[in-house]
């Protein structure tokens, strides 16, 4: 079982990155591909799943994010895709506080998480989450997703925003919900896809 890889990111797509390690390119499914930069030596923590049909590698920016992912996929009703969508928001402290304070409403804002699953997350993780050191988690911010349907007019002229909208769809957010925040994202005027993605996640998960 892998703990982490150290290598160079050679490709960034809406749902994954490719990390080259010793001349081998590994496809890593990640929460926010745009949090990484190409051609830089990077340490990425790894979770591997093996089934009869596929070997899948998931990548994480640090050990704390990997730990949260492994806790989430241990909850009934939460698969890897839903876990990545929850972690796409870099506000992991928000997730931890929601579980500790039994705030199921916050959790249901994420794709694939209904009321029953939100309650299950709280029941299963409330005690376990107390073992996570808050100081290792990034401060409040927000996440990523993607979709292949036609883009709204306000997005077509901005390639960075197009990638962010696609990433939001990939995370599982509905086209209807994404379209609601497009006007605010268009006015946001970010200079990176990562910034658009984080702002999109903030808007989609706000109260």
Automatic annotation (TrEMBL):
GO molecular function (one): DNA helicase activity
Domain Helix-hairpin-helix DNA-binding motif class, first and last residues per copy: 70-89, 105-124
Family affiliation: Belongs to the RuvA family.
Entries under SMART domains matching the protein: HhH1
Region (Domain III): 155-207
Protein purpose: The RuvA-RuvB-RuvC complex processes Holliday junction (HJ) DNA during genetic recombination and DNA repair, while the RuvA-RuvB complex plays an important role in the rescue of blocked DNA replication forks via replication fork reversal (RFR). RuvA specifically binds to HJ cruciform DNA, conferring on it an open structure. The RuvB hexamer acts as an ATP-dependent pump, pulling dsDNA into and through the RuvAB complex. HJ branch migration allows RuvC to scan DNA until it finds its consensus sequence, where it cleaves and resolves the cruciform DNA.
Originating species: Agrilactobacillus yilanensis
UniProt entry keywords in alphabetical sequence: Cytoplasm, DNA damage, DNA recombination, DNA repair, DNA-binding, Hydrolase
Domain notes: Has three domains with a flexible linker between the domains II and III and assumes an 'L' shape. Domain III is highly mobile and contacts RuvB.
Cell compartments where the protein resides: Cytoplasm
Assembly with partners or alone: Homotetramer. Forms an RuvA(8)-RuvB(12)-Holliday junction (HJ) complex. HJ DNA is sandwiched between 2 RuvA tetramers; dsDNA enters through RuvA and exits via RuvB. An RuvB hexamer assembles on each DNA strand where it exits the tetramer. Each RuvB hexamer is contacted by two RuvA subunits (via domain III) on 2 adjacent RuvB subunits; this complex drives branch migration. In the full resolvosome a probable DNA-RuvA(4)-RuvB(12)-RuvC(2) complex forms which resolves the HJ.
Protein's name according to its UniProt entry: Holliday junction branch migration complex subunit RuvA
